[in-house]
Amino acid sequence: MYIDLKKNPFFLSDKDIAWVQEQLAAMTEQEKIAQLFCLITYTDDEQYLAYLAGGLKVGGVMTRTMSLSELINTVTRLQKHAKIPIGHKKSLYPAANELTA
Fold it and tell me: Taking the complete model, does pTM exceed 0.70, yes or no?
């Protein structure tokens, strides 16, 4: 399968494409599979986030019920421990315990 990384939605330069190809070639099969997973975290605990990013090497993380400072800590810590940048998604919907009458 061929994906044109210069076109929508990627719009990568030749330099960017070379980086992607180098990273992909250097990844083990287990690392490639781990990139398919997006886990949920409720904490900005550095040890746990280091495990997600450096141990499991997940491709993405969704954060829930966090203050802005916890969110910033979480994203910063994840990227600090990741070999490949981790995708991040923040749920904009409140959790059940955050709803008010």
Answer: yes
What are the counts of helices (DSSP H) followed by strands (DSSP E) for the chain? 4, 3
Q: What is the DSSP letter of 29?
A: H
Contacts of 67 by beta carbon, 8 Å cutoff, 6+ apart: none
Give percent of the chain above pLDDT 70.
Answer: 89
What's the confidence (pLDDT) of residue 67?
Answer: 85
In sequence order, the β-bridge partners of residue 27 are: none
Q: 72 is in which domain, residue-wise?
A: 29-92
CA quadruple 90, 87, 38, 54: dihedral sign:
negative
Is 8 a domain residue?
no
Residue 19 belongs to some domain of the structure = no
Sheet holding 87-90, edge to edge: 38-41, 60-63, 87-90
